[in-house]
Amino acid sequence: MSEAVTLSDIQRARQRVASCVRRTPLVISAALSERLKTNVYAKLELFQKSGSFKVRGVFNKVLSLAAEAGEKRIVTVSGGNHALAVAYVARALDLPAKVLMPESTIPAVAGAVRDYGAEIQFAASAAEAFSTVAELEKEDWTYIHPFDDPLVIAGQGTLGLELLEDTPQITDLIVAIGGGGLMTGVATAIKSLKPNVRVWGVETEGADCMSQSLAAGQVVSLEGIGSVARALGAPAPSEATLHAAGELLESVTVVSDAQALYATRFLLERLKVLVEPAAACTLAAADRLKTQFSTEHHVVLLLAGGNVSADILAAAADAE
Known about the structure:
By secondary structure, the protein is of the alpha/beta class. 46% of the residues lie in helices and 16% in strands. The longest helix is centred in the middle third of the chain and has 17 residues, at 150-166.
């Protein structure tokens, strides 16, 4: 189990990555406020470098290695936003990088990873990919886990510090959960400084490892990911992120793919931003939670990624 992340860890991470990441906009939305009958804000993290929040954690992890002797070479297993982040960070810091990808990875993601300069190795299965990582670690490659690493979690937590500075009146935050690293970091930052803020988690059907794990009281591994929200495709949370969910979240709302796709379209039409279903599902959850909010509340939707493929865009256009 990864060690617990503290507010001090997150504050140090912010200092470490400040020159490497963007401070993304936070806007109030009249359309969303009217829809939910409360005050609604959107944190537009989709405009982050590489298209998602992931670079925050990867930069913090890799920069923390700077004091160690020897050549730095980084490797990860991912077919999505984490792969893009690792490749981007490696290019920015002039480091060799390998990304082990499932053979089912979308060609656009693989192409972007190559364009950033990382080497790709395709794997037939997750087991094969992780076996390869283990061999590379023996050769002094540093494995960057997508979420089960306190340095990665602390980097993601820098978003929470920004949220509090930009909306000190915040009463509620809605955040999507994949493996739980983003949720853990952001909720830790916010609850440490403003304990009365309510943090609500959201997953999609077919990618709901956290809600299943909370119900079971232990880590549950999904046999497969069956959701359009590909960025939420972690097969299981870690012990650390499961513990954080139990301690820091009000609840986890599970929405359907159709609801996430409709929210994607609504955000495009009304806010003029194209976000992933894995981020738009925060709006779908807000629709389900709106009885929890009044005109006195200030609700932030964390729109954490915008890497949308053409097939998802077409599906969102048809969503009702």
